[in-house]
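REVIEWER CHECKLIST
Item 1: Sequence provided? yes
Item 2: Single chain? yes
Item 3: Sequence as submitted:
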Amino acid sequence: MKVKRPLKYVIGLFIGIMLLGNFATLSQQRDGLRQKGDRYENTGIPNNCDDKIYGVTLNGNVIEIENIEGNSKVMKQLGIVFPFKCNALAKGVNNKIYGVKADEQSKTPIYEYNPKAAQGNVSKWVLPSHNDGGWISGAVDSKGKLYFITTTMENLVRVDIRKGEPDVMWSDNMSVSGWKKDNCSAGCNFFINQKDELVVKENKGNNLWYIPLNERFTVSKSEIINSATEINPSNDILEYYNTNGNLMTLLLRRDGISYYSNKKADTFSLIKIDTLKMGILTDLAGCNNFIKKEEKVVEEDKDELITASTNVNESIRLKNILFQLGESELMPESFSELNRLVKQLKKYPQVEILLEGHTDITGDAVENIKLSLERVNSCKKYLVNKGIESRRIQTKGLGSAKPLKRTGSEKEREINRRVEFKVIKGIG
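Item 4: Structure as written out by the authors:
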């Protein structure tokens, strides 16, 4: 026998289901990570990351720091946040911090702490067992994923906090091209820069290595920090945007934090702590080094589009590459700029590039990707017809995923319709 429900009951039930669905969606978005369909998806722009950085001492003490530069720095002692000795610390773009028990080689859980609520708990993520001393350093990438690495860089694990299981990026039996185990015989720390590269520094040395986070782990470049600055040894390294929008390189020492400038080749103390009272500092964590405002693109004004100082994966905008609205055929006004690129590619026959196409933020996203790919393929065809080998040019259509302007007049948003290239194999 069917039971008839009053109309208001049915309507109430429907509204309840809708509210539950919206609550689930909101709960999912609160983690602060990129969501499918998010207008900033596939960009390096965190939703919620604030400017605070955190330092942890070996005994689990955490300090919270704001406005680290100049005389306006604010330091707050949070006390013993982690109920264990800690060497590895990461900050998510959800503004929570994550610590791992030091010197642990068996399976060990990640501890999650919310500074705003002053609450912590053992998380659902468990790092795998290994034979490399312990988890020594943590970091976060531009998409909000966390990374932890062992003492001599033998093991790297990635944690997507929307998933249950960590991903093992590499382990003891996996090699990294251009890497020697001896590089980190005394331990290494790292952070992840704006290009999503691991930037690794020796604890007892001044060497830096850059390892892009892609399928083939290869050291892309190495450099030496000026030893005259006496930053050796250091416990961690981190990039940080200060209140003036300038990128600072922070170096963690046992008793404080210093700022290092390649240009000035000097350091000076920013924060100093009482190691007898708090313990020695072991790791730094932050996430504001990923650009939160307009994405920065190198726009070369000189005749040389490519020089010896051009960085691999540095975006360079091609000027006046024009197409009819909604079309992929090049307009004649584009030829001058493409001829400049032809000249450069002939001058440096070893260089290989990736052409990237972008549309504005109007229209269907899928169609925009298709159109942007067709447009860069038109540019490639032009370059090949001018004598450049096809194998030296890759293409990618990004559609409206990476706008330079999200607001403003139509004239201002025209900058979104552009073609850029990246050098994927450099001069040297």
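Item 5: Key structural point noted by reviewer: The longest helix spans residues 7-29.
Item 6: Recommendation: ____
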